[in-house]
Amino acid sequence: MRKANPNANAEKQKRFRERQKQKGHKEVRGYVSPEALKCYAEIADKTHWTDGDILSNSLRITYAAYKCGQIKLLNDWLKENGY
């Protein structure tokens, strides 16, 4: 019986990361679009938050909008303002 390649998963992950970089995405705990990266850079510059803080606070804001029934309002604002 043949053993599976122990490096197969690492190689697959490396190929995935390379494809994301070629698309212009940056890993910040996931891959983000170039538009989102501009927002990320501005938030990081103004707040001096870490990647984890930015992600955490973004999720908390989105969740708060959802819980308050304002997710459509937030989404519409993002679309109207080019985000």
Automatic annotation (TrEMBL):
Ranges for region Disordered: 1-28
Lineage of the species this protein comes from: Bacteria, Pseudomonadati, Pseudomonadota, Gammaproteobacteria, Alteromonadales
Bias type Basic and acidic residues, positions: 19-28
Biased composition (Polar residues): 1-10
Name of this chain's protein: Uncharacterized protein
Species this chain originates from: Pseudobowmanella zhangzhouensis
